[in-house]
Backbone:
C-alpha cells in the first residue's frame, strides 16, 4: 500500500470535512438565523462577536457543557447510537463530490469513484436508520410518530430523487462526478447549455427535461433533508420536535449537525449535477480533460467557484424555508408518489426521445 | 480491492471517531445530570404520559416501505441503461435501446397503477 496516497487522502478528508463542511454547518445555522430575522423584519443574533459571527462558537460550547441526560424510560443503547448513525452518513456522502479540479496535481475529490451519485444515495439513505432508531428508542409518543413519518417521507422521495437524475446520466454517459463536471465545463452546464456541444438545437431541447429534473431533484432534496416546506417529521405544532424530542445536549447537536451537513452536501450534489460544479461559465479556465494539468491559481479559482455556488444554493434553501408554509401529510405523499414519480418517468422517456431525434450530433 | 475505495474507509473511521468523540466529550465536560421523576418521564408537553410510548401506527407506512423497495430497485436498474444509452443509441440501435427500457418501465408502471388503484398511496380517510 502507498503511504503517500493514504496521507494525501487523510489530508483531503480532514480539510474538507473538518475545516470546510463543519464550519459551513455552523455558519449556515448563523446564516439561517440572520436571514430568517431579515425576512421577518427582526435583527437576529448580533451580540456575540461582530454581527453575531461568534454565535456558532458560543452555541457549540454550550451544547458540550449542557447537562447530559439519558431519561429513564428510553432504550439506552439505541438511544445513544441514533445521533451518531444520523450524523456519520451525512459526513460520508461528501467523499465523492469534486470540490475543485486539481491542486498540486492532485484531484480535488476524496474518493474518485465511478459510482458517484449511487454512492451518495446509498449512504444518504443510511441516515434513515438513525432517525427510525431515535424515534423508537425514545419510547415516547411524539418521537415515535416523528420517526415513522420521517422514514416514510425520506424513502418516498428517494425514488423521485433517483429517477430525476436518470435523464442526466443519459446525457453524460458516466456515473463519475469528476467526469460529469468536466463534461459540463466543456459542453455547457446542464441548466445553461450555451457553449460547446450544448450550443445546438438538441442541446437547447434537452434543457427542457433537464429543467424538469432540476425541479424534481431540488424539491426531493428538501424532502430528504426534512426541511420546510417538508418538515413534517418535526413540525412543532403537531409533534413538538419529532424524533429528537427526548434528546438534549450534544446528542441533539449531532442530529442538528447531521441535518445541516446533509443540506450542504445535497446542495453540493445539485451544484455538481446541474450547475457545472467547480467550472466557470462559457468554458473559462476549463481544463482540457480530467487528466490534464491545471495551473495552481486555476485550481484555487475552481475551489472558490464551487463553494460560492454551494453557498448560494444554501441561501436558496434558507430563503425557501422562511417563505413557504408546511405541506399536509397526504399532500406530501401525493406529491412524491403520484406527481413527481409520474413526471420523472415521463421525463426519462422525453429525454430519450429528444436524444434519438436525427438532428446531427 | 480497488484503491479508490480506501479513502472512503478512512473517512468512515474518521467520521465514526468524530461522532463517538463528541458524545464522550459531552459526557466528560457536560454538567452531571441530576435526575428527578419529571425528567425520567416521556415528554408530552407537561401532561403526564398515558399508555405505552409506542402507539399503534397506520399500516400505510408498511405499504409505503414495500412499494419503496419495489420502485427503488426499478430506478437502480435504469441507471446502467441510462449510462450506456448514448453509446448504444447510434446507427439504428436507437429503437432497440429505447423500447427495451420502455417495456421494462411499462411493466412497472402497470404495477404502479395497480397500487394506485388499490389506494395504497391514498392517505385521506
Residues:
Amino acid at each position: 500500500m502507498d503511504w503517500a496516497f493514504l496521507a494525501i487522502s487523510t489530508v483531503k478528508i480532514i480539510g474538507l470535512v473538518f475545516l470546510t463542511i463543519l464550519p459551513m454547518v455552523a455558519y449556515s445555522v448563523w446564516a439561517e438565523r440572520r436571514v430568517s430575522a431579515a425576512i421577518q423584519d427582526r435583527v437576529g443574533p448580533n451580540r456575540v462577536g461582530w454581527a453575531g459571527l461568534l454565535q456558532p462558537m458560543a452555541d457549540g460550547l454550550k451544547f458540550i457543557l449542557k447537562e447530559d441526560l439519558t431519561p429513564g424510560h428510553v432504550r439506552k443503547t439505541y438511544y445513544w447510537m441514533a445521533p451518531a448513525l444520523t450524523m456519520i452518513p451525512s459526513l460520508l456522502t461528501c467523499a465523492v463530490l469534486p470540490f475543485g479540479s486539481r491542486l498540486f496535481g492532485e484531484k480535488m475529490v476524496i474518493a474518485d469513484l465511478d459510482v458517484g451519485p449511487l454512492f451518495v444515495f446509498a449512504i444518504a439513505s443510511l441516515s434513515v436508520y438513525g432517525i427510525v432508531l431515535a424515534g423508537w428508542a425514545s419510547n415516547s409518543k411524539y418521537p415515535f410518530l416523528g420517526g415513522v413519518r420521517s422514514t416514510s417521507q425520506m424513502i418516498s422521495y428517494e425514488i423521485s430523487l433517483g429517477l430525476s437524475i436518470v435523464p442526466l446520466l443519459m446525457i453524460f454517459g458516466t456515473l463519475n462526478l469528476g467526469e460529469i463536471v468536466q463534461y459540463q465545463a466543456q459542453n455547457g452546464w446542464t441548466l445553461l447549455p450555451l457553449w460547446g456541444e450544448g450550443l445546438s438545437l438538441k442541446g437547447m431541447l434537452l434543457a427542457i427535461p433537464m429543467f424538469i429534473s432540476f425541479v424534481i431533484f431540488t424539491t426531493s432534496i428538501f424532502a430528504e433533508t426534512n426541511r420546510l416546506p417538508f418538515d413534517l417529521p418535526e413540525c412543532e405544532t403537531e409533534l413538538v420536535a419529532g424524533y429528537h424530542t427526548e434528546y438534549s445536549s450534544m446528542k441533539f447537536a449531532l442530529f442538528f449537525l447531521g441535518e445541516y451537513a446533509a443540506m450542504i452536501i445535497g446542495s453540493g450534489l445539485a451544484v455538481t449535477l446541474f450547475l457545472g460544479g467547480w467550472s466557470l461559465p462559457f468554458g473559462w479556465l476549463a481544463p482540457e480533460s480530467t487528466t490534464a494539468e491545471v495551473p495552481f491559481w486555476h485550481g484555487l479559482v475552481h475551489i472558490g467557484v464551487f463553494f460560492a455556488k454551494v453557498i448560494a444554493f444554501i441561501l436558496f434553501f434558507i430563503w425557501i424555508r422562511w417563505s413557504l408554509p408546511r405541506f399536509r401529510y397526504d399532500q406530501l405523499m401525493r406529491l412524491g408518489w403520484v406527481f413527481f414519480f409520474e413526471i420523472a418517468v415521463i421525463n426519462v422517456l422525453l429525454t430519450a426521445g429528444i436524444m434519438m431525434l436525427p438532428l446531427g450530433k | 480491492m480497488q484503491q479508490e475505495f480506501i479513502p472512503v474507509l478512512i473517512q468512515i473511521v474518521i467520521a465514526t471517531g468524530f461522532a463517538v468523540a463528541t458524545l464522550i466529550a459531552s459526557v466528560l465536560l457536560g454538567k452531571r445530570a441530576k435526575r428527578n421523576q419529571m425528567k425520567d418521564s416521556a415528554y408530552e408537553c407537561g401532561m403526564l404520559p398515558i399508555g405505552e410510548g409506542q402507539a399503534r401506527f397506520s399500516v400505510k407506512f408498511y405499504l409505503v416501505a414495500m412499494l419503496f423497495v419495489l420502485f427503488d430497485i426499478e430506478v437502480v436498474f435504469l441507471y446502467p441503461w441510462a449510462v450506456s444509452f448514448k453509446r448504444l443509441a447510434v446507427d439504428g440501435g436507437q429503437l432497440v435501446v429505447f423500447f427495451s427500457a420502455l417495456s421494462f418501465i411499462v411493466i412497472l408502471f402497470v404495477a404502479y397503477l395497480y397500487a394506485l388503484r388499490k389506494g395504497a398511496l391514498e392517505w385521506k380517510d
